[in-house]
Specification:
16% strand
């Protein structure tokens, strides 16, 4: 009823989600509930008790995330794999309509952006923040108050990447120095990622 004739586009979209933690897990849940039927997720972590404040499926402590999520979201495809530089270089991801990047390893993230920026939706840092109203989708080069994205920018500049690549980002100043996450922000990042994906699918000719 909401998407009309565009709903068939949503159902047919082929989407890859890289990382299914606090951000990627909520993106998965949103896309699945919105009718996307061809979803592949990639992650190598097991659930830890420290994930339980923000990650979908984290009741299954000690279980591989992709394996547990496959039992919750019938029909999704899973790849139990660490996303590192070697995997990015040796894996062709062009078969996917969209790549949702929710990883927090800097080097593979940089390589993914360089290689697939035209079909990527990337997340910046969502930890250490508590205000979801500060979330934006803006040019990577205009982001502030995000040390993680600052490192991404620096590496991309060194590699002479100058595309106007946009990222999901929060302008909120980090609340703490050590790590700490709030599901109101990490989940909102994932839902924003899902919403942007749906919008891109609908606008695709």
């Amino acid at each position: 009823m909401l998407f009309g004739e565009n709903f068939s586009k949503i159902q047919r979209a082929k989407i890859l989600i890289l990382g299914v933690g606090g951000v990627g897990g909520h993106a998965l849940d949103c896309l699945y509930r919105s009718g996307v039927s061809d979803i592949t997720i990639v992650d190598f972590d097991r659930y830890d008790i420290t994930n339980q404040n923000r990650q979908i499926g984290s009741d299954a402590v000690g279980v591989y995330k992709v394996e547990h999520l496959q039992t919750r979201y019938t029909g999704i495809k899973v790849i139990n794999q660490k996303i590192d530089i070697e995997w990015v270089h040796n894996t062709d991801l062009n078969e996917y309509d969209l790549i949702l990047d929710a990883i927090d390893d800097i080097k593979p993230k940089v390589e993914l952006i360089k290689k697939y920026y035209k079909k990527m939706i990337s997340s910046g840092g969502s930890a250490k923040k508590t205000d979801p109203t500060k979330i934006e989708y803006i040019s990577l080069w205009k982001t502030t108050n995000d040390p993680f994205l600052r490192k991404i920018r620096t590496m991309l500049k060194k590699d002479r990447f100058d595309k106007n690549f946009k990222v999901i980002f929060s302008s909120e100043v980090p609340k703490v120095v050590p790590k700490g996450s709030f599901v109101g922000v990490t989940g909102a990042f994932g839902l924003t990622m899902c919403s942007l994906a749906i919008d891109k699918i609908i606008k695709e000719k």
